[in-house]
């Protein structure tokens, strides 16, 4: 039986995921509480327009794709109090709300940490500093694509990648999906078409997810230790490095829970 094995949301784009036992999918096709904040470069604190929608390209802020050392930071977000706590190796670097003073404290603490890592030199490029914390802490705005989408992958696909790579562990967290399903063969989800029901929500299957260098970073150490992209193309024969799919609710959102059955509607 195909079922939901794990659920994740990522309160601050590029930082620690929250494993949760249920998610609320909004009518607009985004997950409530997911990517409600981001840390942007100084010259990119305002959104760009794409297809009539606000869009925040991940290349113009802190993201694992270019700053893998972010994975070394442990971030917790209090959704009710709208408060961010960031730690490194057990030491709290900052604990602040998202008022003006708190945003400055968060940005300064992250800047200082990143300066201490091999990725710090990337902050020296023109227009990057000072960093800016953007978002209201409630609205989901900072997905990779302007339309948003809910992301899903099969655990069997991740396990196949893990088995093909020696010297590194590859688990669900590298792919930063909202929904992880189990009970189906590797890559089966890439063949889904039409509609699928998960929990309270009927989705349309939109397109596969093309992957980037963020998947190379160990989600605990930030080390780029797994050649995921090359493995997807050379070992598994993908034309482009692909793992997982994007979904949109057909009519309205609803709640999804760990253990919910996945039903292909065609």
UniProtKB/TrEMBL annotation:
Pfam families linked to this entry: MOSC
Residue stretches making up the MOSC domain: 116-265
InterPro entries (UniProt xref): MoCF_Sase_C (IPR005302), Pyrv_Knase-like_insert_dom_sf (IPR011037)
Protein origin, superkingdom: Bacteria
Full protein name: MOSC domain-containing protein
Lineage of producing organism: Bacteria, Bacillati, Actinomycetota, Actinomycetes, Micrococcales
């Amino acid at each position: 039986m195909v079922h939901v094995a794990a659920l994740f949301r990522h309160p601050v784009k590029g930082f620690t995921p929250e494993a949760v036992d249920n998610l609320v999918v909004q009518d607009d096709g985004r997950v409530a509480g997911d990517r409600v904040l981001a840390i942007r470069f100084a010259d990119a604190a305002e959104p760009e327009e794409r297809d009539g929608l606000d869009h925040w390209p991940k290349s113009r802020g802190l993201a694992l794709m270019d700053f893998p050392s972010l994975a070394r930071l442990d971030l917790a977000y209090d959704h009710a109090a709208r408060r961010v706590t960031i730690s490194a190796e057990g030491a709290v670097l900052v604990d602040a709300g998202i008022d003006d003073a708190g945003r400055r404290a968060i940005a300064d603490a992250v800047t200082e940490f990143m300066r201490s890592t091999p990725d710090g030199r990337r902050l020296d490029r023109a227009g990057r500093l000072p960093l800016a914390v953007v978002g209201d802490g409630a609205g989901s705005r900072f997905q990779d694509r302007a339309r948003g989408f809910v992301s899903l992958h099969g655990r069997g696909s991740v396990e196949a990648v893990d088995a093909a790579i020696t010297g590194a562990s590859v688990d669900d967290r590298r792919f930063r999906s909202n929904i992880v399903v189990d009970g189906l063969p590797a890559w089966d989800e890439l063949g889904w078409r039409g509609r699928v029901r998960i929990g309270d929500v009927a989705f349309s299957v939109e397109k596969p997810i093309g992957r980037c260098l963020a998947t190379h970073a160990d989600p605990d150490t930030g080390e780029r230790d797994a050649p995921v992209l090359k493995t997807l193309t050379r070992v598994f024969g993908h034309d482009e490095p692909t793992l997982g799919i994007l979904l949109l609710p057909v009519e309205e959102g609803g709640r999804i829970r760990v253990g919910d059955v996945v039903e292909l509607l065609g």
